[in-house]
Amino acid sequence: MVQFDDVDLEEFEQLQMNARNRGRVSWPILKTFLETGKFLARLDRKELGARGKDVQKLESLLKSYVKNHGLKVNVIKLKGEIYLQRTDIDKDGNKVEIPEEEENPEKPAKDLSDAVVDEEYEETED
Amino acid sequence: MRALIIVSARFNPQELWGCLKTLKNHEITFDVYSLENPIRNEKTGDRFNITGLVADIDMKRLNKYDGLYIISGAFLETKDYWWHDKTRRIVEWFNEKEKMLAAICCATPTIRYAAEGKKVSYYHMIDTEDLLGGFYAILTDASLTVDGNLVTAEHQQVTVQWTEAGIAIMKGEEYKSFIKEEVSNASNVKTPLIRKKKWADARFPDKDVTKE
């Protein structure tokens, strides 16, 4: 028979918090960078050990984390080094107003005229 | 001369534009209908306004058309026509009047009601074989087949030839196919007739396909 054990709610919430994946590599790096308050910084990869050896992998890891979590950080790879640049402040530390991304409006529907048929046919042939 | 075109709501651009351009080159006017308006290019997402919805086609005014082209696209949207009652009635009307009926790729099962005893080219899938086979169509391996008023094509690469074959039928001319020899498709598993019959019985319990 299947059995069910009682669970302590607080303990469960803590478990949930721990399980929430913040990234064992990306989040500590990005968090520390944001805490320094610097506009631009080069990442010292020595501290990262084996994780820091593959620059390309690390760059894509950081980039995807930034993209998925909507962080205002630019990850740049330059001559085998990784640079982090904040996009929410300027080099003097002043806040920059970032306009919210406009939703990509759908193109209006075209009428099926002779010109449209010709144009679309040419494009399809290409 | 006027053609009725029924196209998948998410259409295959190569098929639609190839067909419309060929009709235009032969100075044949057309009306384009679908289950949605506007229709959408399945590759680019661009939208196009069409004549109207299939539901709005006036059955009493079908006389003004000399032929029907059914164009496929995204699989799910194309599949909608397989079971669409209005489309079925339109196909049956064109077949009764012995007017040209053309379908391409996954859209071929849509004209199965007119395919009994006729050779058809079709997009090779078990579903399409079952549907066409259920109505006793003669399945072929050719890319393009013309049999009586029926013009069917297997894939988009023969769109222009397929449209031209339809135009020839509409004009009452003989179409000389470019196909000299059928090439057997090794991946094509022929559906045994017993399965076709079973399938047809299951799908159309009120319909005796053997008597049609």
What does this structure look like?
The complex is a heterodimer of chains A (126) and B (212). Chain A is of the alpha+beta class and 126 residues long. Chain A has one domain. Chain A is 39% helix and 13% strand. Chain A contains four helices and four strands. In chain A, strands 1-3-2 form a three-stranded antiparallel beta sheet, with helices on one face. The mean pLDDT of chain A is 83. In chain B, the strands form three sheets. Chain B has a seven-stranded mixed beta sheet, with helices on both faces. In chain B, strand 4 (39-41) and strand 5 form a beta hairpin. The longest helix of chain B has 13 residues, at 13-25.
Q: What is shown here, in short?
A:
The complex is a heterodimer of chains A (126) and B (212). Chain A has 126 residues and is α+β, with helices and mostly antiparallel strands. In chain A, 39% of the residues lie in helices and 13% in strands.
Query: What's the quaternary structure here?
Result: heterodimer
Termini gap of chain B: 31 Å
Major beta sheet summary of chain B: 7 strands, mixed
End-to-end Cα distance of chain A, whole Å, is 65 Å
Overall tally of structural domains of chain B: 1
Number of helices of chain A: 4
Percent range for helical residues of chain B?
25-40%
**Number of DSSP E strands of chain B:** 12
Round the mean pLDDT of chain A to the nearest integer and report it: 83
CATH class of chain B: Alpha Beta
Q: Could you name the ranges of chain B where pLDDT drops below 50 across 5 or more consecutive residues?
A: none
The H-and-E topology of chain A, N to C, reads as HHEHEEEH
What is the strand arrangement across the widest sheet of chain B? Answer: 6-3-1-7-8-12-11
Radius of gyration of chain B: 16 Å
